[in-house]
């Protein structure tokens, strides 16, 4: 019955202050995972890595080039050596004549070229393996980002809940102060109390109002933090209070542990695997590449076969120049091996091994920090459970003292100073109770964050 009254008071107070939308923790997490920018970004990175894997598999396909060109020019030939440096130079071919002439005609070249690195001593496969590990790394990065976001949203949600319960306590404190202000003013008017009592009562009401406004501001701050983590437009939420007077079942069973690797450690592990895979790929560059190739070439020219003897034996007609009349084909296999590559790749391998060692140290450090966090969470849970057991005792004692002092004050048997002290004690006890209850869940969340199994936490709701 008491819990129902508190819940009703909770909704009435928050509704009166503009908080209209009740939000469950599961809804908050679902919304945050769907809307938060960094998660959507890493989801796209994971999709990109999957496409890169498909592309790396297609790299094994042979190259097949089609080419066609049609030209118009002269064919004066000259004896001598020539190297087409950077593609500069022409491929005109014709008889070596004693004099320059400007006879010109159309010509054409039609070409089909295929080349295929059919055996690369594992380079192609290692590239595919590297792309596979990259997909795993991106997925693990997304998973650990989602896990961290779940923890952040849960912590922000609990903080919002705590702030809203503190707001209730401050509202109740203000109500008590206003009641006794009315009592004090009435008794002063009737000459039963000194005038200073009404002054002190007015001061206590003002103090309670200031505390209430600070609590409202604190609620706004916590609400805004939750809004940011959820990635939604600014709005006010009411946190669900159904679980607040309970403690996590897993805490009572003390089974909040898991054999699975923490998402953060899984991410570091895939980074190490990616670096090791790069080492394997660089080592494959030590070896040559074997290729198969084939060419089918068809040519056409406006210069006739007797042009070397009769320089008038050519045609400037377009169709005569581009109509193919000579074809050649060529097939073969080859091997290429840059003998200096192993000397360069060796340093890449050494460098990447140092990167792997660095990533391993990061993994070890993260593992140590998680173990330390787990031990701290275990100790914190023990302390918060002890405080959880003491909080009701403190509140009950403070309530009895308050009732006693208020009765004495109404009968003129004590002064307002004693009553104010008991009001302060009761308010502090109620705040401690609200914080202690919330701290049990916060400490359990800290343990879940260290173990890496968020289901242990969310299954409580």
Describe the SSE topology:
Layout: H1 2-16, E1 21-23, H2 25-35, H3 37-58, E2 63-73, E3 105-119, H4 123-189, H5 195-230, E4 237-239, H6 249-253, H7 263-284, E5 289-301, H8 318-322, E6 326-336, H9 341-410, H10 416-451, H11 455-458
Parallel strand pairs: 1-4
Antiparallel strand pairs: 2-3, 3-5, 5-6
Helix pairs in contact: 1-4, 2-4, 3-4, 4-5, 4-7, 4-10, 7-9, 9-10
Task: Walk me through this protein's architecture.
By secondary structure, this protein is of the alpha+beta class. The chain is 64% helix and 12% strand. It contains 11 helices and 6 strands. It has helices at 2-16, 25-35, 37-58, 123-189, 195-230, 249-253, 263-284, 318-322, 341-410, 416-451, 455-458, and strands spanning 21-23, 63-73, 105-119, 237-239, 289-301, 326-336. The protein has a 4-stranded antiparallel beta sheet with strand order 2-3-5-6. The protein has a two-stranded parallel ribbon with strand order 1-4. Helix 2 packs across helix 4 and helix 4 packs antiparallel against helix 10. The two termini are 22 Å apart. Residues 1-16 have low confidence and may be disordered.
Describe the main β-sheet briefly.
4 strands, antiparallel
Task: Return residue spans where pLDDT drops below 50 for at least 5 consecutive residues.
Answer: 1-16
Q: Number of helix segments?
A: 11
Helical/strand content category: alpha+beta
**Mean pLDDT over the full residue set:** 82
Gross morphology is elongated
Q: What is the element string, with H for helices and E for strands? A: HEHHEEHHEHHEHEHHH
Highest-level CATH class of the domain at 2-35 and 124-279 and 344-458:
Mainly Alpha
Number of strands: 6
- Beta fraction: 5-15%
Q: What is the CATH third-level topology name of the domain at 2-35 and 124-279 and 344-458? A: Outer membrane efflux proteins (OEP)
């Amino acid at each position: 019955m008491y819990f129902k009254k508190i819940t009703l008071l909770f909704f009435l107070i928050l509704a009166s202050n503009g908080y209209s939308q009740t939000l469950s923790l599961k809804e908050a997490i679902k919304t945050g995972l769907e809307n938060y920018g960094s998660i959507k970004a890493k989801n796209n990175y994971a999709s990109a890595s999957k496409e890169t894997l498909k592309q790396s598999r297609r790299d094994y396909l042979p190259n097949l080039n089609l080419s066609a060109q049609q030209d118009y020019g002269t064919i004066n030939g000259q004896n001598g050596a020539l190297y087409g440096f950077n593609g500069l130079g022409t491929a005109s071919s014709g008889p070596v004549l004693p004099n320059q002439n400007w006879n010109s005609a159309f010509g054409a070249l039609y070409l089909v070229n295929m080349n295929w690195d059919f055996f690369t001593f594992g380079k192609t496969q290692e590239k595919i393996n590297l792309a596979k590990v990259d997909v795993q790394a991106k997925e693990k990065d997304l998973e650990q980002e989602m896990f961290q976001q779940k923890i952040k949203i849960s912590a922000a949600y609990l903080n919002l809940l705590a702030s809203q319960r503190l707001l209730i306590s401050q509202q109740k404190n203000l109500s008590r102060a206003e009641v006794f202000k009315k009592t004090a003013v009435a008794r002063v008017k009737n000459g039963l109390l000194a005038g200073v009592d009404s002054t002190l009562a007015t001061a206590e009401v003002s103090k309670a109002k200031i505390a209430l406004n600070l609590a409202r501001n604190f609620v706004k701050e916590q609400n805004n933090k939750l809004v940011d983590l959820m990635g939604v437009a600014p709005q006010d939420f009411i946190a669900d209070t159904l679980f607040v007077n309970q403690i996590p079942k897993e805490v009572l069973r003390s089974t909040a542990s898991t054999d699975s690797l923490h998402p953060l450690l899984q991410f570091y592990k895939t980074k190490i695997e990616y670096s090791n895979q790069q080492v394997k790929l660089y080592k494959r560059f030590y070896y040559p590449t074997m290729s198969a190739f084939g060419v089918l070439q068809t040519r056409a020219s406006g210069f006739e076969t007797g042009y070397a003897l009769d320089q008038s034996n050519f045609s400037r007609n377009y169709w005569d120049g581009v109509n193919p009349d000579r074809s050649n084909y060529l097939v073969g296999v080859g091997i290429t091996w840059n003998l200096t590559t192993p000397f360069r790749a060796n340093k890449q391998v050494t460098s990447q091994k140092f990167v792997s060692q660095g990533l391993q140290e990061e993994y070890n450090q993260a593992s140590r920090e998680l173990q330390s966090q787990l031990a701290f969470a275990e100790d914190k849970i023990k302390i918060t459970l002890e405080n959880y057991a003491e909080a009701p005792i403190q509140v009950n004692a403070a309530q009895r003292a308050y009732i006693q002092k208020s009765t004495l004050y109404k009968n003129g048997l004590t002064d307002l100073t004693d009553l104010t002290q008991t009001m302060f004690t009761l308010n502090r006890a109620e705040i401690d109770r609200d914080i202690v209850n919330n701290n049990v869940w916060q400490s359990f969340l800290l343990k879940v964050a260290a173990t890496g199994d968020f289901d242990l936490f969310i299954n409580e709701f």
